[in-house]
Amino acid sequence: MPDTWSQVGKTMEVSDEGTVLTKTSGGDFPIHVAGGELLSSGVHTWEVVINSGAGTNGNRDMKVGVGKQGCNVEKGDHHNKGDAWYLRTHDGCVYGGDMDLDDQEDLLVGRGVGRKKGKYFLVGDRVGVKLNCDDGSLCFYKDGEEFGIPFPAGTIKGPVVRAVELLCKGQSVTLVTDVELPYVKKMETDA
Asked: Over the stretch 19-52, which tens digit does the pLDDT of each residue have?
């Protein structure tokens, strides 16, 4: 059976057989949500589809990745405590472990980080995640293509669970498990 959003707090609503998550109440602060499947060995891939931004202004600032089992679902920012590893959709940077934001922004300057903040991921985009529990690496994808800076081998110490942090009321995502990442490119043939 595919994983579902099963570890949620009181400001979240889960629907569609546990795959759709919506922040329905509370202030504009990050709230952690996790899947129920414990990931401890092998390679796991999934996507989080951005269904909607905040109800008031369309804000799509959220974090997607993995966290240690048992993180408090009434709070967020677990990456600051060494308990979660995320890609933040707002700035395209990764959060958690020893990843330094200043170093990342220096690496991303060529991508025009300042001009793109808040525009990396839009409604309908798919944030892909590939976790290799055997080597401790975590890679991210946007609509099936590699995106951003990965967490290198040795970073993720399992076991972990799939996780997101939603920031604003109205934000909604769908969990899609067992996808092939990166997407297989179809060969164009001459007719």
From this structure: 999 999 999 999 999 999 999 999 999 999 999 9
CA–CA gap between residue 92 and residue 101 (Å, rounded) = 11
**Distance from C-alpha of 98 to C-alpha of 114, rounded to nearest angstrom:** 23
* Phi, psi (rounded to 5 degrees) for 115: -80, -20
CA atoms of 143 and 146, how far apart (whole Å): 9
pLDDT given at position 113: 47
Helices (H), the chain: 101-108, 113-116
Smallest Cα–Cα separation from 185: which of 150, 131, 146?
146
Split at pLDDT 50, 70, 90, the class of 81 is confident
Contacting residues for 32 by C-beta, under 8 A, at least 6 apart: 9, 67, 71, 72, 73, 75, 76, 78, 84, 163, 164, 165
Do β-strands 161-166 and 145-151 pair in parallel, antiparallel, or remain unpaired? unpaired
- Judged on CB neighbours under 10 Å (0-12, 13-18, 19+), 187 is exposed
DSSP three-state, residue 22? strand
Token output for 50: 């951005």
Q: Which tokens is 55 given?
A: 């109800």
